[in-house]
């Protein structure tokens, strides 16, 4: 039994927090939304009235927040985690934030006597609810050893990606590749169809040929070949355009800072930014197919 503070009980955090409580840990939960706290209580956690109250006496703090500014505010802001946690408390931030923001948080936490691990996730709300997330973890070896048993409850794959920030590096590099490969897959299916080759036949060939990729075989953007894909429910997410755009912006910002050339990553970001601007932020990211067909 571990004493855990869980902060950020949204779409992802609610299921993750519930799984920690279900596994027999003493979990104190806080969110800005009273409703979210009530739901966490129903799932077996104890509601806390503030960040400070959640963190008091905790051995581990887990956060699942929208973006870097929230993470920095929760950890280092007035009456935040660092001013209330006992020395040596382990911090695990599962939010997707910029690599630099994660590295800065790790060094500020370390100066204050804490270990901070960045542990962003792959997998959506269904995986969060089912305890089947993949965690990509950055931070020191001893922090990883302490974090792993907690992450194992919420996930099925837990990778140590290296030093502070490397979890975020793995996350954004992977998702940049995903954005690019999805657009490429949409273009290929659209081209095949325009030239008279139906989606199923093209799928049967390409999924066993060199064009095969996850965007095709798990998430096919053409309706039909993969029944569970969002394309079969008019591109309801799944993984929304807004989420892909967030990750691509993080990837492109980090690439610029590191001097890494990412021409296709930049193009993918622009395509998703245009969809977002045009009011399609809530569409699944495979909905690029609808744009190529001129439907949106
Ligand atoms: P969400 O907006 O549903 O949840 C965030 C929660 O944080 C909200 O309940 C909000 O009230 C709370 N919050 C914000 N500021 C706070 C503060 N100062 N103190 C306490 N609580 C605060 O977001 P989400 O979909 O759960 O995503 C969380 C993170 O996970 C994001 O970084 C996102 O990029 C990442 N992520 C999401 C998905 C997904 O499918 N939703 C998948 C992978 C990664």
What does this entry look like structurally?
- The protein is built from 13 helices and 9 strands.
- It has 296 residues and is α/β, with parallel strands linked by helices.
- It folds into 2 domains: 3-163, Rossmann fold, CATH 3.40.50.720; 169-292, N-(1-d-carboxylethyl)-l-norvaline Dehydrogenase, domain 2.
- The strands form 2 sheets. It has a 6-stranded parallel sheet.
- α8 packs across α11 (241-258) and α11 runs antiparallel to α12 (263-277).
- Nicotinamide-adenine-dinucleotide is lined by residues 7-13, 30-33, 36, 64-66, 70, 73-74, 95-96, 121, 124-125, 243, 246.
Please tally the helical runs, counting DSSP H or I stretches of 4 or more residues. Answer: 13
Largest sheet: 6 strands, parallel
At CATH's second level, what is the architecture of the largest domain?
3-Layer(aba) Sandwich
Order of helices and strands: EHEHEHEHEHEEHEHEHHHHHH
Instruction: Bin the strand percentage.
Output: 5-15%
CATH fold assignment of the largest domain: Rossmann fold
Based on secondary structure, the structural category is alpha/beta
Number of domains: 2
Task: State the strand order across the main sheet.
Answer: 3-2-1-4-5-6
Mean pLDDT rating: 98
List the helices and strands and how they pair.
Elements: E1 3-7, H1 13-22, E2 26-30, H2 34-42, E3 46-47, H3 51-55, E4 60-63, H4 68-76, E5 90-93, H5 99-111, E6 115-118, E7 121-122, H6 125-130, E8 133-138, H7 141-154, E9 155-162, H8 166-194, H9 199-206, H10 214-217, H11 241-258, H12 263-277, H13 288-292
Parallel strand pairs: 1-2, 1-4, 2-3, 4-5, 5-6, 8-9
Antiparallel strand pairs: 7-8
Helix pairs in contact: 4-5, 8-11, 8-12, 11-12
The protein binds nicotinamide-adenine-dinucleotide.
């Amino acid at each position: 039994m571990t004493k855990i503070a869980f902060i950020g009980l949204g779409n992802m955090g609610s299921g993750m927090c519930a799984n920690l409580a279900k596994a027999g840990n003493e979990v104190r939960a806080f969110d800005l939304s009273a409703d979210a706290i009530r739901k966490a209580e129903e799932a077996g956690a104890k509601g806390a009235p503030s960040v400070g109250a959640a963190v008091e006496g905790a051995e581990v703090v887990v956060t699942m927040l929208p973006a870097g500014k929230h993470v920095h505010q929760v950890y280092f802001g007035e009456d935040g985690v660092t001013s209330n946690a006992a020395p040596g408390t382990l911090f695990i931030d599962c939010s997707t934030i910029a690599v630099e923001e994660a590295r800065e948080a790790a060094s500020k936490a370390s100066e204050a006597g804490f270990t901070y691990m960045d542990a962003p996730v792959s997998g959506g709300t269904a995986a969060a609810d089912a305890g089947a997330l993949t965690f990509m973890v950055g931070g020191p070896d001893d922090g990883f050893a302490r974090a792993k048993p907690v992450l194992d409850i919420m996930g099925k794959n837990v990778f140590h990606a290296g030093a502070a920030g490397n979890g975020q590096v793995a996350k954004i590099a992977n998702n940049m590749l995903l954005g690019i490969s999805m657009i490429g897959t949409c273009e290929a299916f659209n081209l095949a169809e325009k030239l008279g080759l139906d989606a199923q036949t093209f799928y049967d060939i390409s999924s066993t040929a060199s064009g095969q990729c996850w965007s095709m075989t798990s998430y096919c953007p053409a309706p039909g070949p993969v029944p569970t894909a969002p394309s079969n429910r008019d591109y309801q997410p799944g993984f929304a355009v807004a989420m892909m755009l967030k990750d691509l912006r993080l990837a492109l910002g980090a690439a610029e800072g590191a001097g890494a050339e990412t021409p296709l990553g930049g193009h993918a970001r622009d395509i998703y930014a245009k969809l977002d601007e045009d009011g399609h932020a809530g569409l699944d990211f495979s909905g690029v197919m609808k744009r190529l067909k001129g439907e949106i």
